[in-house]
Amino acid sequence: MDFGTDFTINVLWAALLGYAFGSIPFGLILAKLAGKGDIRQQGSGNIGATNVLRTGSKGLAAATLLLDLAKGLVPVLIAWNLFWQEVGWTALFAVIGHCFPVWLGFKGGKGVATNAGVAFGLAWPLGAVYAVVWLGMLAITRISSVAGMSAVVATALAAAYFQWWTMVKVLSLIAVLVIWLHRENIKRLAAGTEPKVGSKG
């Protein structure tokens, strides 16, 4: 991933590939197809799996989680084959697409599941770190935001440990974005009012 001054057409294609996949609002689509209404008008208003779970359907939430993960994984795998030098742009824009989908007025999710797919696509050890930290923190705290933020930071640190410096760049940018999108969650955590997984709030 080159953040320098050299801009090639491949960078544009790589970014568009990531954004096209990332911007598909699976949570919204699945909830509507299942007769759950507009997920944006329920719970936290988020289109991700955690809010879909608040509809009471664990299966629907699991499907949303897997599809949101896939829309980070698939474009990155495609990018490795088409323009591997620009794969970081695909990874970054897959998460940006999920968080800011043009189809929903640039109001999407918070990027946690999609970033999991991105991590697996970039390198399986990074995906493994992401999964272990995410699931571990979720089991310990039962707070989705804590698990997600912990996972994105841990994955960027893991890339640094392996000295995969180009991946450190993109994963650090994604971590900053994800944490910024969780700013209201951070306020609730500080106030002790952040809901736990399975709650209706």
UniProtKB/TrEMBL annotation:
Catalyses which reaction(s): an acyl phosphate + sn-glycerol 3-phosphate = a 1-acyl-sn-glycero-3-phosphate + phosphate
Assembly description: Probably interacts with PlsX.
Signal peptide (residue range): none
Coiled-coil ranges from the UniProt annotation: none
Membrane topology: Multi-pass membrane protein
Enzyme Commission number(s) from the entry: 2.3.1.275
Gene Ontology molecular function terms on file: acyl-phosphate glycerol-3-phosphate acyltransferase activity
InterPro entries per UniProt: G3P_acylTferase_PlsY (IPR003811)
Keywords: Acyltransferase, Cell membrane, Lipid biosynthesis, Lipid metabolism, Membrane, Phospholipid biosynthesis, Phospholipid metabolism, Transferase, Transmembrane, Transmembrane helix
Biological processes annotated in GO: phospholipid biosynthetic process
Keyword Oxidoreductase belongs to the record: no
Family to which this protein belongs: Belongs to the PlsY family.
Subcellular location: Cell membrane
UniProt cross-references to Pfam families, sorted A to Z: G3P_acyltransf
Pathway(s) of this molecule: Lipid metabolism; phospholipid metabolism
Any GO CC annotation of this UniProt entry: plasma membrane
Highest rank taxon of the organism: Bacteria
Role played: Catalyzes the transfer of an acyl group from acyl-phosphate (acyl-PO(4)) to glycerol-3-phosphate (G3P) to form lysophosphatidic acid (LPA). This enzyme utilizes acyl-phosphate as fatty acyl donor, but not acyl-CoA or acyl-ACP.
Key word Transmembrane present: yes
Uppermost EC category: transferase
Protein name per UniProt: Glycerol-3-phosphate acyltransferase
PANTHER family in the record: GLYCEROL-3-PHOSPHATE ACYLTRANSFERASE-RELATED, INNER MEMBRANE PROTEIN YGIH
Major site of localization recorded for this protein: membrane
